[in-house]
Amino acid sequence: xxxxxxxxxxxxxxxxxxxxxxxxxxxxxxxxxxxxxxxxxxxxxxxxxxxxxxxxxxxxxxxxxxxxxxxxxxxxxxxxxxxxxxxxxxxxxxxxxxxxxxxxxxxxxxxxxxxxxxxxxxxxxxxxxxxxxxxxxxxxxxxxxxxxxxxxxxxxxxxxxxxxxxxxxxxxxxxxxxxxxxxxxxxxxxxxxxxxxxxxxxxxxxxxxxxxxxxxxxxxxxxxxxxxxxxxxxxxxxxxxxxxxxxxxxxxxxxxxxxxxxxxxxxxxxxxxxxxxxxxxxxxxxxxxxxxxxxxxxxxxxxxxxxxxxxxxxxxxxxxxxxxxxxxxxxxxxxxxxxxxxxxxxxxxxxxxxxxxxxxxxxxxxxxxxxxxxxxxxxxxxxxxxxxxxxxxxxxxxxxxxxxxxxxxxxxxxxxxxxxxxxxxxxxxxxxxxxxxxxxxxxxxxxxxxxxxxxxxxxxxxxxxxxxxxxxxxxxxxxxxxxxxxxxxxx
Length: 491
What we know:
Number of helices: 13
Largest sheet: 9 strands, mixed
């Protein structure tokens, strides 16, 4: 079990536990809070995804001192009612303000309380219910959860922070858990030793432990997947339902005429295995909304979006926000003059994460086109018959894809290396031959990443494919847009 929190929620929790300036003095009382959390379950992987922080004020506490704290029965009942009514799981947090060590851990009283309380709550609340507790010192933390299968309390693997404001903070950080076994430092072999001075030791250590999902294996995705293999990313999940077409051969790395008709993911998996046989590859020849693709994508450490339609982009945008997974979306495009020469040529790479904004509030998704892309085949055919849904084939060239994909992979290295000051949007102007960062601001009213959005809802509100239309009267385009659950760049 891992815990995943947005950086904004973590900062708010820290302020509650230790005050704005985190001043250390002997008389400071312990503080506590509850976090309502969803979950992400895939195979043997379990994650608790923080959704809402509820801090305990003086009226919510029955006791409070520098060495202990206890909530009132009414406060606990309110939390359990919300869990039972809405399906949330629960993370309890309290502080040890007296502990400035690097190995904060639970006290004997904490353990005694959890051994009694955790089985009781598991029996009271309907499945699936997950229960974790966390103790936070000034420089470290510890966390454990109740495993219903074995009836034991087990250490949390790691605590991950995602997102945050643009600035010095890193958009992806992993916090050590005192009781969890420390992962061994990765050994840099000779084939990758020359990249170490450029990517840094933290990123180099993170590469072989990371799982990165690449969605879309066209011109952009093929570049990105192979570069990640050369860097040494431990597990690549390749997702694309398309087969190699003759028109792909001008930019699809590793593909030749003999590969026409083969699944793109199969061709790229072979290339990855050839250049980096030490890497695990999971090739999924399906679109990202299938159960198998989502099962793998939602537990990745990072997702790379290399897709060429608004529906797929909207899906990945929701995946990132709902499951607290950083998304690096990339796209290329061109505008041609009447004589056929490009007047605009370039692309962009952008980060989607809580506190950074998303593709929707930045205006990178056309809801009408996204609704068409995500509609059932019956609805799409109906729309085509009425003059919507046809588009010209976009021009594409290998060197443009190579530049933009390289920017995308460089951002992967920055994220896995916990580097800050990362722009949320990087634009590449191929005509001027320059890149420049663009300052973006999240929109608080955004229905996806805003204050009332879907941050951390995870499996409580999972993504799913549109169902087949069975009614005799098919909807109009405006009705499709209104039913959308959740750019136009080529790859």
